[in-house]
Amino acid sequence: MPESSKLHPATIVMNIKSCVPITLDYEGKQFNSWSTLFQLHCRANLVIDQIIPPPVDPSAKKTEPTPAEQAFTQRLDDIVRQWIYGTISTDLLNTIIDLDHKAVDAWKRLENFFLNNKSVRALQLDAQFTNTRLEQFDGIKTYCTRLKTLADGLKNVGDKVSNNRMAL
Questions:
Q1: Number of domains, the chain
Q2: Are 155 and 32 contacting, i.e. CB atoms less than 8 angstroms apart?
Q3: Which of 9, 41, 117, 140 has its CA 20 to 30 A from that of 80?
Q4: Total-model pTM
Q5: Tell me: the pLDDT tens digits for 43-68?
Q6: Neighbour tally for 100: CB within 10 Å
Q7: CA distances from 15 to 25, 87, 148 (A)
């Protein structure tokens, strides 16, 4: 049976928001969580290669895909792009959407957008972390959640918060 006539897991996903419930926005505070959930979803649905292509083996014999295989691969790519577009804010969508690009292009644009300004983002997040006080919140749970979100944001840009600093 040709690959394109098999039922592929990605073709039956009805609601991407139930699998990736985070909406990524310009602030990108949830980029790491969004990215992790998105990659897990792609792996589970056998389409991770659409956003993270496998390394190319130069010694491997390259065969040309059939027109049916090309069409099926394009369909999977379109599905993954819809997932990306469906899990980001409208403003961010308007920044990266392009009919002629592939899912990997959208993925790379998002990564570049959130990971290329690491030092500036690290300074902003560190200042927010340092200046966050319990009296600014209505309880310890919201305070700790905010600190955890800021610490995750710092981790995303390569500036991990030590356990000692978290405790203090």
A1: 2
A2: yes
A3: 117
A4: 0.73
A5: 999 999 999 999 988 888 888 999 99
A6: 5
A7: 19, 10, 28
